[in-house]
Write a structure and sequence with these properties.
By secondary structure, the chain is of the alpha/beta class. The chain is 37% helix and 17% strand. It has a single domain, classed as Flavodoxin domain (Rossmann fold, 3-Layer(aba) Sandwich). The chain contains five helices and seven strands; from the N terminus they run E-H-E-H-E-E-H-E-H-E-E-H. Strand 5, helix 4 and strand 6 form a beta-alpha-beta unit. The protein is globular, with a radius of gyration of 17 Å. It binds flavin mononucleotide (FMN). The site of flavin mononucleotide has 19 residues, from helix 1, strand 3 and strand 5.
Length: 223
């Protein structure tokens, strides 16, 4: 893990909600409380508080050999992600898909920065989706694909953390969703601690880091 060995695991929650104090923030805070109770450090990035441009028409992402040059807050957030042991994406469903702040972030982060050397490899990943009930599972699946693309470790913990709220008021009104969220946060902490311990004894990366970029042909030694 890239965090400091011996120190508490750092879990970073990234919220893609525009709504301060809304369902997504509440769910992320709930996860954060649990991480802290387990002895971890929990940090939050609210995408709404940052300058993040949508992908522009420059169109050279696939051929660029250096990170995206759009001047905004993306590099700072990417650095914060690199420092974490685990990352939780938390997002509301909008129009049957990812709410736009998270969609823009995922596009910019992936194509603009992460694809070069997959710096999130071996970090523990988690997903929280809030919604009324329509297409929350598709949004979850999209984020699963994204975590796996980035070689992150998705720890099975039971049902996905889909939190439903049909009230007009923000609230954690879904006991089954909350149970799933708790299980996910616990398992993320279990895995983050395990990886730290193994790394401390192995004195190096826990898992091989050679497969970093699917766009570059990889030659494995036959031996
Ligand atoms: C523009 C908009 C579109 C939405 N589309 C959906 C949807 O397709 N499916 C769904 O289940 N909920 C949908 N919702 C409800 C939100 O996903 C849900 O209330 C969510 O928990 C809000 O999170 P927040 O309080 O963090 O903004 C939509 C809400 C808004 C504002």
């Amino acid at each position: 893990m890239q965090g400091l060995r011996g120190a508490e695991p750092v879990i970073l929650g990234i919220s893609g909600s525009e709504n301060a104090g809304g369902n997504t923030d509440l769910a992320l805070e709930y996860a954060g409380d649990l991480v802290r109770r387990r002895g971890g450090v929990f940090r939050t990035v609210h995408l709404r508080d940052h300058r993040i441009s949508p992908c522009s028409p420059c169109g050279d992402c696939n051929s660029r050999t250096s990170p995206c040059a759009l001047p905004d807050d993306m590099p700072t957030i990417i650095e914060e992600m690199k420092r974490a042991d685990g990352i939780i994406y938390a997002v509301p469903v909008h129009g049957f898909g990812l709410a736009h702040l998270m969609q823009i972030f995922i596009e910019r982060a992936g194509v603009g920065y992460l694809r070069f050397d997959r710096p999130l490899a071996n970090k523990v990943g988690g997903i929280i989706v809030t919604g009324r009930r329509y297409s929350d599972a598709s949004v979850h699946n999209q984020l699963v694909d994204n975590l796996l693309l980035n070689r992150m470790i998705l720890v099975g913990s039971g049902f996905p953390a889909l939190l439903r709220n049909t009230s007009r008021e923000p609230g954690l009104n879904d006991p089954e969703g909350l149970d799933a969220l708790e299980r996910m946060a616990h398992r993320m902490m279990d895995m983050a601690l395990l990886l730290r311990n193994v790394q401390a004894t192995a004195n190096g990366p826990v898992l091989p880091l050679d497969d970093r970029n699917e766009r570059v042909a990889r030659v494995r030694s036959a031996s």
